[in-house]
Amino acid sequence: MQATRLTLICHARTDARKLARFALDESLEMDWQVARGSRAGDFKRPPQLLSAPEARARQTAELFGAQMQIVPALADCAMGRWQGVPIDDLQKHEPEALQAWLTDSRCAPHGGESIEQLCARVADWLETLRSTPGHFLAITHPFVIRAAIMHVMQCPPAAFNVIDVEPLSATELRFNGRWRLRLQEHRSATETMTP
């Protein structure tokens, strides 16, 4: 039985991350057009390139190739009325709501998607890949990658906020009868592109 290989890449840095706010559908901080295709040779055989629908994910996907499939299940967590809001503002004006969201995975005081709903969406999508062998390269968001790791590792909901996912980091998952997290060899700074 041939394995399913899924490499999850976090989109490159945006202003939202630098400014500590929930993201809008914004472009990357880097000049992604100049860097287009610069990481296409990262894999011996080209994987099937998947992308979340947001601009920051699609632009990052362009670093790896031009032919991508947009996958709605890879979309960032819907933050409702908190979209674009700095976390400092929420700490000042809605501290109870922010605390509830951080501690209760079923809570969505912003009117968007709860962490529990996000995790269920990502788990459902992972299950669809189980019967599809081959290598998939999915460009997505930190929250989606956290949810995928939690599903594979069977972590409790409290683990969600203790997983850090850096821009352009890679997380490798493999399915061969069961999902496994695979830690990869560290590449030197000269082998990686900085945003």
Distance between the termini: 38 Å
Give the low-confidence spans: 188-195
List SSEs in N-to-C order.
EHHEHEHHHEHEE
Assign the CATH superfamily. Phosphoglycerate mutase-like
Output mean pLDDT. Answer: 90
Question: Into how many domains do the coordinates divide?
Answer: 1
Shape: globular
* Number of contiguous helices: 7
**CATH-defined architecture:** 3-Layer(aba) Sandwich
- Summarize the main sheet: 6 strands, mixed
Organism: Pseudomonas fluorescens
InterPro entries: His_Pase_superF_clade-1, His_PPase_superfam
Protein name: Phosphoglycerate mutase
Describe how the helices and strands are arranged.
Blueprint: E1 4-10, H1 15-18, H2 32-35, E2 48-51, H3 55-61, E3 69-70, H4 87-93, H5 95-103, H6 115-129, E4 134-140, H7 142-153, E5 170-175, E6 179-182
Pfam family, one: His_Phos_1
Protein name: Phosphoglycerate mutase
InterPro entries: His_Pase_superF_clade-1 (IPR013078), His_PPase_superfam (IPR029033)
Please give a quick description of this structure.
This is Phosphoglycerate mutase. By secondary structure, the chain is of the alpha/beta class.
List key phrases describing it.
7 helices, Rossmann fold, disordered C terminus, globular, 195 residues
What does this protein look like?
This is Phosphoglycerate mutase. InterPro entries: His_Pase_superF_clade-1, His_PPase_superfam. It holds the Pfam family His_Phos_1. It is a single chain. With 195 residues, this protein is of the alpha/beta class. It has one domain (4-182): Rossmann fold, CATH 3.40.50.1240. It contains 7 helices and 6 strands. The chain has helices at residues 15-18, 32-35, 55-61, 87-93, 95-103, 115-129, 142-153; strands at residues 4-10, 48-51, 69-70, 134-140, 170-175, 179-182. It has a 6-stranded mixed sheet with strand order 3-2-4-1-5-6. Helix 3 (55-61) links the parallel strand 2 and strand 3 (69-70). Helix 4 (87-93) crosses helix 5 (95-103). The N and C termini lie far apart (38 Å). The model is unreliable at 188-195 (pLDDT under 50).
